[in-house]
Amino acid sequence: MPGPLLLVNLLISPMVNESAVPADLLRDCLASAYAGKRKKPAVMDILVTGDPEIAKLNRRHLGKDEATDVLAFDDGEMKDDRLRLGDVAVSADTARREAGGRGVPFEQELLFYALHGLLHLLGMRDDLPADRAKMHALQAKAMRDFGIEPAVGLVTRPEEGRND
């Protein structure tokens, strides 16, 4: 029996409590979301880290001296008969803080970030508020398609109107 269309290599930083990370949920939901969009076998890496490490990545690659929720670096090369989509980094610290502020489960917030990163790897942009809202709707749909009803705070996010 063939494996999933999307192979997700999950890396958990030593600064993150590994037992708090829903590893199977992240891998399986990302694979399910990808299978709904593409038919070519692919691979991606996802790093679950903390604010200090994601701030370093943000500074190094985007010149922004701050922590953020998710970063995505597309690749588009082949790796062992699979398209290598690229790398995603998500901040467990930011997810925990934002989940608490929104009143949503940490696991859903973290999954929302991972799905957002996947959509970036698939070519979606969120520079404009309308594009960001579209991405958030697709993230929520991917969760529903996987059998998870997203908490209300994930669907109506206050930052949808920001202009960054």
Mind explaining what this structure looks like?
The protein has 164 residues and is α/β, with parallel strands linked by helices. It is built from six helices and four strands; from the N terminus they run βαβαββαααα. It has a four-stranded mixed sheet with strand order 1-2-4-3. The longest helix is centred in the last third of the chain and has 17 residues, at 129-145. The protein is globular. The model is unreliable at 160-164 (pLDDT under 50).
Based on the model shown, name its key terms.
alpha/beta, 4-stranded mixed beta sheet, globular, 45% helix, disordered C terminus, 164 residues, 6 helices
Concise account of the structure shown:
The chain is α/β, with parallel strands linked by helices and 164 residues long.
